[in-house]
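Fold this sequence, please.
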Amino acid sequence: MGQGNGAAGSAYYPVDFTNTSGGACTLFGYPGVSFVTGVGGAKIGRAASRNPAFGSELVTIAAGRVAHSTLQVVNAENFPNATCHRVTAHWLKIYPPNQTAPLYLSFSAPTCSRRAKSVNILAVEAVRPGSS
């Protein structure tokens, strides 16, 4: 996960997926992303919604090369605390597209613990070729 860039009420973070195998691999679609209480811990709030800014495409990643996605983290202060129930998350759980084994990243941010549809803190784009 790279350095974030701020925008009105949000920050955008690049999420790189590196192929550590000896051969090419493919990814298609969106990663699954959520805040969690720790490695193997419970989900906090809602999982990331899918940002359709870029359509899904089959991305072939050569050995040692990278594909990326962008994660939007909305400022939890944008929501009334009665709706949000603000907490600080310290971990992200990320499922690469079409994978069943999650990756965990240490990442701290204020978030909303409520799962109401109106409270959407995370949004993720489809995986694209190259690094962010």
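The helical segments are 81-84. Residues 81-84 form the longest helix (4 residues).
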